[in-house]
Amino acid sequence: MNIRILLAVTVRVLTQLRRDRRTAAMLLVLPCVLITLLWWMFRDMPGSLFDRFGPGLLAIFPFIVMFLVTSVTTLRERSSGTLERLLAMPMGKLDFLGGYALAFGLVATVQAALAVTLSTGPLGLSVSGSVWLLGLVAVADAVLGTALGLFVSAFAQTEFQAVQFMPLFVIPQILLCGLFVPRPALPGVLHALSDVLPLSYATDAMQGLVSSTSTGEVWRDLAIVTGFALAALAGGAATLRRRTP
Amino acid sequence: MMNNAVEIRGLVVVRGGRPVLDSLDLTIDRGTVTGLLGPSGCGKSTLMRSLVGVQELRSGSVTIDGTEAGSKELRHRIGYVTQAPSVYTDLTVRENLVFFARVLGADTGTVDRAIERVDLADHADQVVARLSGGQLSRASLAVALLGTPDVLVLDEPTVGLDPVLRRELWTLFHSLADDGAAVFVSSHVMDEAERCDRLLLMRQGQIIADDSPSQILANTRTDDMESAFLALVDAAAEGSAA
Fold first, then answer.
1. Do A12 and B99 lie within an 8 Å CB cutoff?
2. N or C, which end of chain B is more exposed by having fewer CB within 10 Å?
3. Is the Cβ–Cβ distance between A67 and A169 less than 8 Å?
């Protein structure tokens, strides 16, 4: 791994993002708008439903957004020939993936800071645990989305296909992560399935932070999410081939 | 110094179950501009990708100065232009070059020199997406000139360019060769042939002629490369029929 090259990729991806104002704005503003919409929906309902659903969405939004952005960007890199050119240069696979993960991780940090500040401040989400930890979990989710996006882009030939991977890879995770039905209440098979999906742990971590001050389980969940992200990055590296047919 | 920069032995490449290159042998020298000319789909790009080390090979070997093509120690010494312009269209010309220079570990002075060489100084700070087709392929070519590559593999770098500019680029290729680089340029435009020191004519994965352009014309008793190409194809057809 070469830090100079990794950082060159990060700077380049961020420069591209700065040029593409519309995407940059959507990355930062969209999660806030959606969380506000959720808060507004539940405002006149009895009970604290926003406290129940808010944390899950804080986990899901960065995940979805980063999954989409990364899978499309890296696919573009594969199809435009720039990836082939880079792999003919002294570019390591991990430099490439790490550069992307770092760039989108930084964007995710800003995104998470905005969404968490908005939720816990003006929208009044009550968090028993640490707000900082809540932000950290959101960043880990975003990096997970980035890593999975990098991985699946290897299996798509067109941007159209890449976008179709979202319903396949993301929506089942949203359905089973415990947001709609608490995971212990799921039928046995689905519960077992949800145990091997990373978003379940991200949601568990968020809900744990909101409902309790103990952080032991949160750190464990965070470690699992990070483990999934690293595994997906390793999988992504395995799918990047210097020599192609 | 060894003169044969690139040595290809028994190269076989199969794509989609079909042999694109079938036991090809070839050496490419330093200090010369070697042209690879042939119709679209004849295997030019596959050969070039093999030289750079991004093509999956079935068998045979491609070495540069005795080292396997695509090896780590070679990757900063090879300037490669892919057939489709491969630069980031949402960055400016300069931002693109600065990025690739960082990857190569080349100093930033090389960026300005590359921009000058492809005559894009007036457009250096323009976003690539707003450039014309010719400017775009020059931006892509500039990336291959970064650092001091001693093997240049240029896949159709002059397609669609203004004749004046094309002449300038061929002058540039020759000056790079004079500095000791091995310059390997492909084209499907027959009239570019005469600008090479050595010309390879390729058809259906086979090299059907390998000589200086004037010698190829003399051997086939023709006045232009298109006729020479046809004469060679006809002669080969007669040869296989006989």
1. yes
2. C
3. yes
